[in-house]
Design brief:
Layout: H1 5-11, E1 18-21, E2 25-29, E3 37-43, H2 59-74, E4 82-85, E5 101-105
The protein binds adenosine monophosphate (AMP) and zinc ion (ZN).
């Protein structure tokens, strides 16, 4: 989608540090990490957020979770643990309106909201 920073990363118009890629998803390092491991996993298809999921496009959620599993194993944090976080909409603090899941770990993580 025009003007979407993550679509530009997917197209290679903006640089990123890629950690995983297949035909459905791309994962790259967050530019402003909050933990030793902080990866963003995004669908290659532009979907603004969870509100735009449909039965037709929701298969990408499985692809994202499978990518998270692969990345956590590759980075050696699968057994110690990690979080997969999605922010949907303004009240959740979503700043980039292209669906993404934060994979964070590599250290004991802070207080849980839930
Ligand atoms: P959210 O607040 O859930 O919408 O998360 C957006 C995330 O995208 C933030 O953690 C930003 O640090 C990250 N981000 C924004 N621009 C870039 C970029 N060009 N490369 C990597 N991460 C980015
Ligand atoms: Zn996009």
């Amino acid at each position: 989608m025009d003007g979407c920073i993550f679509c530009k990363i997917i197209k290679g118009e903006i640089g990123s540090t890629k950690v995983y890629e297949n035909d459905k998803v791309l994962a790259f390092k967050d530019i402003n990490p909050v933990a030793p491991v902080h990866i963003l996993i995004v669908p290659k298809e532009h979907i603004a957020n969870v509100n735009e999921l449909t039965p037709e496009n929701a298969g990408v959620l499985a692809d994202i979770h499978l990518a998270a599993k692969e990345i956590a194993q590759k980075l050696g944090i699968a057994e110690k643990g990690y979080r997969l976080i999605n922010n949907c909409g303004a009240d959740a603090g979503q700043t980039v309106f292209h669906l993404h899941y934060h994979l964070i770990g590599g250290t004991p993580l802070g207080a849980k909201l839930i």
